[in-house]
Structures are given as structure tokens and as C-alpha cells.
Amino acid sequence: MVEKPLFWLGSSRADIRAFPARARRVAGFQLLRLLHAFEKRASKTAKRDLEVARERYRDLVKRRKGRSHAQA
Fold first, then answer.
1. Is the overall model pTM greater than 0.85, yes or no?
2. Cα–Cα distance for residue pair 46/31, rounded to 1 Å
3. What are the tens digits of pLDDT across the range 53-63?
4. What is the SS3 string spanning 24-37?
């Protein structure tokens, strides 16, 4: 598997650092891209958390497009 750079968007790095150590270790082994981190307390994900993740994903796509145009 080819390793790719890890991008921290918004407050995601601080959010994941606030998680318990065990949760950070488990997530760290499978982490490819972190858009938003939050403690899920209900069976349904809050609209605000979904919107934050969507906004950050759109930002990531824009950054990648800008980088690919700069390399062309």
C-alpha cells in the first residue's frame, strides 16, 4: 500500500487529540483522511456534524484541483 500524506482540516486535529488514548490508537491505524472528529452519542449523526464534514470535503477537493492545475 502506498502511503499518502495526512491532511488535517479545520479543528479535526484538536478534536482527535481530545479523544481517549485507546480511541486515538484504534483510529490511527486506519486513518487515511480526517475531515471531522466528534463523539457520537446518538444513533443518528447530527446535521451539524454532517455539514462540517461536507464543507471540509469540498475544501479538500478544491485544494486538490488547485494543486493538480499548478502541476500541469
1. no
2. 22
3. 899 889 888 88
4. HHHHHHHCCCECCC
